[in-house]
Amino acid sequence: MSNQPIGIFDSGYGGLTVMREIVNALPQYDYVYLGDNARTPYGTRSFETVYAYTLECVRHLFERGCRLVILACNTASAKALRNIQQLDLPRLFPGKRPGDLPTRRVLGVIRPTAEVIGGYSVAGHVGVLATSGTVTSESYLVEIEHFFPRLNVAQEACPMWVPLIENGEHTHPGADYFVYQHLDRLLTRDPYIDTILLACTHYPLLIDKIKAVLPTRIRLVSQGPIVAASLADYLLRHPDLAAQCSQTGTRQFLTTDSPTDFSRQASTFWGEPVEAEKVAF
């Protein structure tokens, strides 16, 4: 079988925190990561722009042999996933018979998280920290209500967090103000919150600063382990698709920007050095 890796897409580096958990859970598969670093951040862009960029990157991963692509980006999952699943895949990769699933699949990070987040809360009050684009889309509110209609969900957009992280400022004392500011706003909005979801793949890099501010009664939840467990379950339930994904343990890293810059920055998210290749569309 030719190389048919599982594709993992993000607007920048944050998706590497999800990929790391996926690889830990399913190390046997081949993976290719694509970061659209030349056009990041997605969080403040329009629905139309995020959709166009995401579809372009997904198609590139398909051209590289991927049968399955994970949008490890909350903004792309919020603004592009539904259109890609419902409009593009059936048109571009139809099944052999009417009603068949498309021969390519694209999954996101919002639904798997929404399916389980209510189980983490005892009080029934959950906070969501995310980019402006994800918050504005209200995707988490809609998805969580579907699974946990009685759960109280408060959102807070943190537009400065991703730039702080991507510029290497997140470990400096100057980041403390922005962390405290948004946590204070969220807990003022709902003081009964006992669980906070980090609904951006960058945010785990701020977890130490977040924990330093939060009351110990509040549980922090990162998406990576949830998405990894959900993908493992998905492949078990779709053995035909799993069989099409090659299993030689390779990892490849692609970027739309400077591969030297990507390789230098990515180690912060991936946990070890990487070598990246530049792609152009």
Structure commentary:
The structure is a single chain. The protein has helices at residues 15-25, 47-63, 74-79, 81-92, 110-116, 132-137, 139-147, 161-166, 175-189, 207-213, 223-237, 239-244, 259-270; strands at 6-10, 31-35, 68-71, 105-107, 125-130, 152-157, 195-198, 219-222, 251-255, 276-278. Helix content is 46%, strand content 16%. It contains 13 helices and ten strands. Strand 9 (251-255), helix 13 and strand 10 form a beta-alpha-beta unit. It is α/β, with parallel strands linked by helices. It starts with 5 loop residues before the first strand and ends with a strand. The strands form two sheets. A six-stranded parallel β-sheet has the order 4-3-1-2-9-10, with helices on both faces. The chain has a four-stranded parallel β-sheet with strand order 6-5-7-8, with helices on both faces. Helix 5 crosses helix 7.
Structural class: alpha/beta
Q: Considering DSSP H and I runs of 4 or more, what fraction of the residues is helical?
A: 40-55%
Secondary structure: number of strands = 10
**Topology as a string of helices (H) and strands (E):** EHEHEHHEHEHHEHHEHEHHEHE
Distance between the termini: 27 Å
**C-alpha-based Rg, rounded:** 18 Å
Strand order of the largest sheet: 4-3-1-2-9-10
Question: How many helices?
Answer: 13
